[in-house]
Amino acid sequence: MQNPYTLTFGKEPIEYIKRIAEERQILEDFLAPNPPQQVYMISGVRGCGKTVFMTDVSQAIGKDKDWIVVDLNPCKSDLMQEAAAYLSSIQGLAQIFQKAKLNFSLFGFGLEVSDTAPIADIQVALERMIENLAQHHKKILFTIDEVTASPQIKSFTFAVQQMLRKNAPVFLLMTGLYQNISNLQNEKNLTFLYRAPKIILPPLNIGAMADNYRQNIKLMADDAREMAKLTKGYPFAFQVVGYFLWKDPGNFTKVISQSRQYLEEQSYEKIWSELSAKDRELAGAIAQCPGGSIREIKEMLHIEQNELNPYRKRLIRKGIADGSMRGYLTFSLPFFTDFVLDNI
Ligand SMILES: Nc1ncnc2c1ncn2[C@@H]1O[C@H](COP(=O)(O)OP(=O)(O)O)[C@@H](O)[C@H]1O
Ligand SMILES: [Mg+2]
After folding, report:
1. β-strands 330-331, 321-322: how paired?
2. Cα 233 to middle of ligand 1, angstroms
3. How far is ligand 2, taken at its centre, from the CA of residue 183, in Å?
4. Does domain 20-200 have CATH number 1.25.40.10?
5. Which Gene3D superfamilies has this protein been placed in (predicted)?
6. Residue-wise pLDDT tens digits, 85-135
């Protein structure tokens, strides 16, 4: 039988622990008759499940025939063009645009209407499409995975902001690393993003992970719980540990060592390379203070609380550190202490 756990990023895994609360929060807001929110940003460290979560939510929404989900590729040079081209390629929508005599002949969408003047501006074209779809009670969800503050994304989100002001039924889901989302939010003309709710994906439920290992790998309940705890709820680790457990269910030492190496090579090296010198300094101190007492960390770095605070907050927001216990700062990623000790 094939290993049900995956070592690949971004792919909808077979063994999936549902994020019930977060999914419900978005669905309730988006599906409400008068949606209180039309934009959500999903953030968290590499490997925390942003892509998988957004796919899950957008698939749930797309099941409703009144919703049109448009997945945009953030690397494309013009996202409005991509969105408009996609909408005009959908069976049924093209007829709506043609009946409305929208002339898109200048954009090459293959929709030809000859007796009206062609629309020259891509944003106008997209807005007219959406206005017409709204008349047919359609709602449009745009998703963008891994945003950065690139000119393409800025101009697309600016267009969405303008459509929202006109009460258009457009919705936006974006994922991104903390620093990228924060750069985008700090754009002066994208004020709506500042107010938009951000979901920082929390660790997966340990009990659900333990049940999963127990059922799939036939581990004893205690062993399954221990292995689940080892992952600290980090979704990528859940898959990696599961994958090696499936292959070697009787050799925990080997499973742990293989998992650790795989996590380091596929995730932590990249995470580390994206940290600033200050972030690394603090990470180094956390790694060297077993237990993670803030008092000891400050002593080691020779700094006061007010100097520590901004760095502490940044590591927490990036999803690398956990500060939920007062007076302590620990890593939220499994085996990260050893990795940091090896790298400082
Ligand atoms: N809810 C989940 N349950 C189980 N595994 C998950 C879950 N979310 C993500 N994963 C696994 O974690 C890995 C990273 O997920 P991904 O969505 O690519 O993370 P990100 O986009 O945040 O970098 C994937 O291989 C995926 O299989
Ligand atoms: Mg991703």
Report:
1. antiparallel
2. 11
3. 18
4. no
5. P-loop containing nucleotide triphosphate hydrolases
6. 999 889 888 888 888 888 888 887 776 676 788 888 999 999 999 999 999
